[in-house]
Amino acid sequence: MALALDELLTQSAALHKHLCPRQVLGVRMGLQGGALLGLSVPQSAKRLLTIVETDGCFADGVSAATNCWVGRRTLRVEDLGKVAATFVDTQTGRALRVWPRHAVRERAQAYAPEADNRWQGQLLGYQRMPVEALLTWCEVRLRADVALIVSRPGLRAACDHCGEEILNGREIRRDDQVLCGTCADRGYYELCYSASSLTSVRSHDPSTVKAPRSSIQR
Ligand SMILES: [Zn+2]
Ligand SMILES: [Zn+2]
Fold first, then answer.
1. Cβ contacts of residue 140 below 8 Å, gap of 6+?
2. For an engineered disulfide with 126, which of 10, 24, 91, 110 has Cβ 3.0 to 4.6 Å away?
3. Are 104 and 184 within one domain?
4. For residue 211, how far is its CA from the centre of ligand 2 (angstroms)?
5. Are residues 158 and 144 in the same domain?
6. Which ligand is nearest the CA of 182, by number?
């Protein structure tokens, strides 16, 4: 395990040109997630789905350890601003959430007495701490069926309102309409221009311009 940890930390650091305590946490969480589910990591297939609760260095550590990536559709970011991750066996639906123990920053210092500062203490301590001292975990139940979360690549639909293409079964069916998440009011942005200027933006294809969103039947 010590060698594997070193190798994974080297890979994670290569993505960033530096190694930092959060990458170490991510790598150790990824290793633990695989171990708890009995899945060997880094995985070569796509059986393990990982949901990280923040982005940044931590997430790349998790990816290095698990080989779960956004580009492979095996990593999701649910941005709750937490250094935590849930590891899902997509074959069984079993899900385990892993997060750092309370006051882990302080506890790490005892494992790195030679460290010059707290950051160094975390960097080294997180690598040396027994997993039970570093992490907590518990079984969780996903709110959506794992098959729906993974979805099927290759599915395509078109939004009845904006006309844009929707991949992987992410459309929302409301009454007799097929809507994208944005037009169904689940989007993360609002348009900066009115429906009339939308016409000029999309004037090359007037058939795609529909009524303003407020007129959608709900
Ligand atoms: Zn970093
Ligand atoms: Zn739409």
1. 86, 95, 96, 97
2. 24
3. no
4. 11
5. no
6. 2
